[in-house]
Amino acid sequence: MILIALFAVCASAADIAGTWKGSVETPNGAMENTFVLKTDGAKLSGTVTMGQFGDAEISEGKVDGDDVSFAVVRNFNGNDFRLDYKGKCKDGQIVFKVSFPGGDRTFEITVKKA
Fold first, then answer.
1. Which DSSP string do the residues of 37-74 spell out, in sequence order?
2. Average confidence (pLDDT) over 8-37
3. What is the pLDDT of residue 14?
4. Per-residue pLDDT tens for 40-97?
5. Contacts of 61 (CB under 8 A, 6+ apart)
6. Looking at the predicted structure, is the pLDDT value of residue 20 above 60?
7. What is this structure's pTM?
8. Measured between alpha carbons, how far is 70 from 58 in angstroms, rounded to an integer?
9. What pLDDT is stored for residue 7 in this prediction?
10. Residue 8 above 70 pLDDT?
11. SS3 of 29, please?
């Protein structure tokens, strides 16, 4: 039974690894996002590219079955800010809910494997 559970986690992690793309609507139009995700068991690493903001390393990345979570630190006008991503991989896509810690702003982005 434990072997079956381990296989299920590994199979899910393998589905999550790779390049994913999606866009977010902003007041200035759509912003393309690219996620390059790498898995090592339950650990998730990689990068997120957000339009003109460029690449950022993923930190605190985790994969638990179909659930994915990680953080990214960005810099805007000399100020660092953190984005927390929580998502679920289902039907060939990941739907992320992205939040700003300490704030009440959130948005969603749906990405598909490139």
1. EEEETTEEEEEEEEGGG-EEEEEEEEEETTEEEEEEEE
2. 82
3. 57
4. 999 999 999 988 888 999 999 999 999 999 999 998 788 888 999 999 999 999 999 9
5. 43, 44, 45, 46, 68, 69, 70
6. yes
7. 0.83
8. 6
9. 36
10. no
11. strand
Q: What residues does each domain of the chain span?
A: 2-113
Whole-number Å distance between alpha carbons of 110 and 104: 20
Architecture of domain 2-113: Beta Barrel (2.40)
* Element holding 15 (H helix, E strand): helix 2-16
- In the chain, the amino acid numbered 54 is G
Residue 33 CA to residue 111 CA, distance in Å, equals: 8
3-state secondary structure of 52: helix
CA dist., res. 17 & res. 58, Å (int):
13
Q: How far apart are CA 34 and CA 55, in angstroms?
A: 9
**What tokens does 31 get?**
């912003």
Establish how many alpha carbons lie within 13 A of residue 40's alpha carbon, considering only the half-sphere containing its beta carbon: 5
